[in-house]
Amino acid sequence: MKCTVCSKTAEIALRSHNSAFCREHFLLFFKRRIEKAIKDFNMFSKEKRLLIAVSGGKDSLVVWQVLNEMGYNTTGYHINIGLGIYSEVSENISKAFAKRLNRPLYVDYFEKEVGVSLREAAKISKKPYCSVCGMVKRYLINRKGTKFDTLVTGHNLSDESATLFGNILHWNTGYMGRQFPVLEDIGSLSRKAKPLIYLTEREIAAYAFFKEIDYALLRCPNARTTTGSFYKNILLEIEEAMPATRMNFLKAYFLKIQEKFREDVKLSPCKKCGYLTSQDICSFCRLKEKIKEGKK
User: Fold this and answer.
1) Which among 236, 159, 245, 228 has a CA at the least distance from the CA of 196?
2) Rounded to an integer, what distance in angstroms lies between the CA atom of residue 248 and that of residue 68?
3) Which domains does the chain carry?
4) Which tens digit of pLDDT belongs to each residue from 218-237?
5) Does the predicted TM-score (pTM) go above 0.90?
């Protein structure tokens, strides 16, 4: 198999693009897909300060490296969830990668911020681990993001198409109204961007391999309880039979009509911490109240 660009031996074939690339031209293709996403959605400029949400996984490390190589002003932010070896490895990898890029990395700890472990917080609030974890991470990332111009996450085409699939199955129009490659800033909430929106997990894994990026391979011990991987697998099967299905599903169809699902949600400062919320007291502060009551 020959490279579509230069006729050298190809190292990766991308059926969704009807192309195959040698290593050099795949890396160029990858960079251009990110450049296109940034341009298509006017995500950010070189003058802006970007906060990269870094988990230690391939997606966040790859987007951090590419943006750093492109000359953007990047800073990493990692949240240690406190899940034993999984969290220890993720934090250590994130710190090592920040050193490799020679960029700053902030680290916060779930238990220090909340007062108890994730397991205890879920038990006290009577909510699933993933629900509590996601809420706390969103709160902490948004809080840290107030000091930057744009929050950048590693959400990719595989993630976003699976999320859309699940929202359509359950007709969650409210979530569909907030699913977009760029979310504009609202008051104290910073702008959010997803530069990997045009790239799949396989393509990101290939980039990480070619660039020798050491990322966390351990899965979150709670991941088995999520439906996201289930939806991803369904779409992957469809993709195998009909290449480019995910891209068409998300970009060619949904993103063109997404604004029809947008709703005006009135947000006001939380009476306790000032975080913008649709209620008097935000979910984070309500969780801390329950924890305080539980300790009594």
Assistant:
1) 159
2) 29
3) 27-263 (3.40.50.620), 267-296 (no CATH)
4) 888 877 656 888 899 999 99
5) yes
